[in-house]
Structure formats: C-alpha cells, structure tokens
Design brief:
alpha+beta; rod-shaped
Length: 422
C-alpha cells in the first residue's frame, strides 16, 4: 500500500496533522495528532540544547539559525508517516548542518531516533540503512577532516573513542528499531489471526444454526404435508379422521415453533441461558409419535449399556434419527421403519432401516452418495464429533442409515456451544 492513498483508493492529500485514518503507514491510525509528539520533541531539543550551550565551552553560541535547525527536525517529523524514508534523510541532513555549524551538542539527535524508528516500522529498512551510512560518513568527514575549515575556530578532531561511540549509538538505534518492528508485526499478525478465528467461529455458529433449523423444519413440515394431504382427502367422507389429521398438524406446528425458538434463542446476548434443554434421545417417544401421525410406524430397539450421553452426542444422535425418519416419510414407499441404538465401549451406534421402495427425490435411495442436504447435515454432525455416517440402499431394496458417534467428552463439548447446554 502506498502512502498516498487509502486501501479503498481514497487520496490522503492534506496536512499530516489532520490525517487520522489507516493511510499513514503500519498502525498509524493510532497516532491521531502527530503534531503533539513533534511539539514535545521540539521542546526537548530546544530546552536541552540551550542548557547544553551554557556548559559547552568552545562551541558556537545558539542563534536564530541554530534554533531554526533545532526546530527543523520536529517540523519534518509531521510528515514521517507519509514519507518515512524522505523524512529520515531530511532530518539527518538538518542534524548534520547543525553539527557542521559548530553548535553545542544536546538532544538534537532525538529527531533522528524518531525518524529512523518510524521508517523502519514502515518497512523502509534498506532506505534507512543507506541514510544512516550516509549520515555516519558525513559525520566522520566533519569531525575528522572538515573541522579545520568549519566553526568553531580551534576545534580539534574527534577521537577514535568518540567516532566509535557514535557508530555504536547509531547501530543501537537501528537494532532497537528493528526489534520494535518485529514485535509490532507479531502483534498485528496475532490480532489478525484472532479476528480470523472469530470469523471462523461465527461461520461455524451460522452453519450450526442453519443445520438445526433444517432438521427441525424438514421433519415438522414433512409431517404437516402428509397430514394435510390426509385431511383434504378425508374431509368430506371421514371428517373424524380429517379432524385427527388436523390435530396432528397443530401439534407438529407447535412443536416446530418451540424448537425454532430454542435454536434462535442461542442468538441472544452472552450470558443468557437457554430456556429449555437441547433435545436428545430422551425425546424419541415424541419423535415416534409425530412419525406415527404421518403414517410411519417405527420400531425402536436399544442394545448395550444404557447411560447418559454427552450433550453434543445426545443432540447429534437425536437429529440424525429425526432426519433419517424424515427422509423415509418423504422419499420412501415404506410405512414402517426400524431404529436400533447400540451403546458400546466409547461410542454409540445408530441404525435406521426401511424396506423401500424409493418414491421421489434424491435425498434418499436415489442418491446413495448423500448429495441431499439431509444426509450432508448428518455427516457434518457426525464429523464434528469425530464420527461417521454411512447411508445407502441395501441389497434387498431397502435403505439404511448407519451412524457411529464417539463418546469422547472433548469432542462432544466442542460440537455444541455452551448456550446449548442447560
């Protein structure tokens, strides 16, 4: 990204003290008033250099030109976010003129420190190295050779200790600036990763809610559709049976509304507990009653040691059975189904069978690979727990859904947000 446009392409012309957006370099959006720091630097340089001039015998007394050079650096720093390398070079030049004019040393080098830090943080490391090398070379020329012809008169050449100290000071500035840049980039990277993780969690939550709504609505609307057809067919000839079908429709719609409210209740603010527990296998009798109302007789068998399932596994098992029965109602000509729940060591196995034949749609026997949303939702639920779902036609013409869900607590807890657990 250049220093002259924002990420959206908006120009950044105008005084630097009025620019507050993210267009002024890496992380510059936090520096809303750069003139404040420049003012502080100006005060420190002027006051500190004035105090140093009282104890600097043999140096040139500060005059208007000297004070102008002391103020030149802080003024140039106002543009350090827009053109960091150019400002670093200009501040170095102003400092060299100050040193070459023989004025007393002091905190005049503070502007160089700030300019170099800003340029390195903005990724202009190579340019800063070139500017720093030029600055040091010019300093050597002034203090070792050109001092004879420059003020003040009678000045002596800098010792090798002074020259070495200046080199060490400059290298220390560059090293600390580089470390600061690396730490800053790490902070930005971690913040970006946290934001991406938050977006992933939000996407997963939306997917979970969509899957829940699909399972709830697909089952209930299938029951309602079948019963509405029965009511229309029997309304004139057998009104009592039509009334019973309408009663089933009312109960199914009420149940669906309740579950939709429960699912959407997870969108409430943080800290609010759900008003009712998430459904589990303990609600299978209600599910079988709804299936019976749609004309599907379900035989359920439990094998193995019965016990409480982790909340995530319990919810996934209920939804898988619900979706399997919904598919039989919608896509199978069979009016009977068999559900077997087998508890084994460390896992629970669900098997739902019907004898077929398939009628319509691709979500059942016509799509053994599971291209429909129903089977895809089952597989996603099982995969979130580390389990599997296999679905396909049997050799005798029926259809089978076989799910294996592990009972590991970690997988179960990871599959359902806290709001699902009462």
């Amino acid at each position: 990204m250049t220093d002259d446009v924002t990420p959206g392409g908006r120009p950044t012309w105008g005084p630097p003290w009025r620019r507050t957006g993210p267009d002024r370099g890496h992380g510059a959006g936090r520096l809303r008033h750069p003139w404040v720091s420049s003012l502080v630097i100006a005060v420190v340089q002027v006051v500190g250099s004035t105090a140093a001039s009282h104890n600097a015998g043999g140096r040139v007394t500060l005059d208007h030109f000297g004070y102008a050079l002391l103020l030149a650096g802080p003024v140039l720093l106002l543009w350090r976010r827009r053109a960091p390398a150019a400002v670093a070079a200009a501040v170095s030049a102003a400092t060299l003129v100050y040193v070459g004019a023989g004025y007393p040393y002091g905190p005049v080098f503070l502007s160089i420190v700030v300019a170099y830090f800003t340029a390195v943080a903005a990724g202009r490391r190579r340019a800063v190295l070139v500017v720093a090398a030029a600055l040091y070379t010019a300093y050597l020329l002034i203090t070792v050779w050109l001092y004879r012809w420059l003020p003040p008169s009678g000045d002596r050449a800098a010792s090798w200790a002074q020259v070495s100290g200046a080199a060490a000071w400059l290298l220390a500035i560059l090293a600390v600036a580089e470390l600061w840049r690396l730490r800053r980039e790490q902070f930005v990277r971690e913040r970006r990763e946290r934001a991406e993780a938050e977006r992933r969690r939000a996407d997963e939550e939306r997917l979970r809610i969509a899957r829940e709504l699909h399972d709830v609505l697909a089952h209930s609307i299938s029951v309602i559709n079948v019963q509405a057809g029965v009511a229309l067919a029997l309304m004139d000839e057998r009104p009592e049976q039509a009334r019973q079908a309408l009663t089933t429709i009312k109960a199914a719609s009420k149940e669906a509304l309740g579950e939709v409210r429960q699912v959407l209740g997870t969108l409430r603010g943080p800290g609010e507990a759900p008003r009712s527990p998430a459904p589990g296998l303990d609600r299978l009798p209600e599910l079988l009653e709804q299936a019976a109302g749609a004309g599907l007789a379900v035989d359920i068998t439990r094998d193995g040691r019965a016990g409480a399932l982790p909340p995530g596994v319990d919810l996934a098992a209920f939804r898988i059975v619900q979706e399997a029965l919904t598919n039989i109602i919608r896509h199978s000509g069979s009016r009977t189904a068999r559900v077997r729940i087998t508890s084994r060591r460390g896992a629970v196995e669900l098997r739902v069978d019907d004898d077929g034949p398939a009628t319509t749609g691709t979500d059942h026997a016509h799509d053994p690979d599971g291209g429909g949303n129903g089977l895809l939702g089952m597989r996603e639920r099982a995969a979130a727990l580390g389990g599997t779902v296999e679905a396909g036609p049997r050799a005798d013409g029926g259809f089978r859904v076989l799910a294996l869900l592990p009972l590991t607590t970690g997988a179960a807890a990871a599959s359902v947000p806290d709001k699902e657990n009462p």
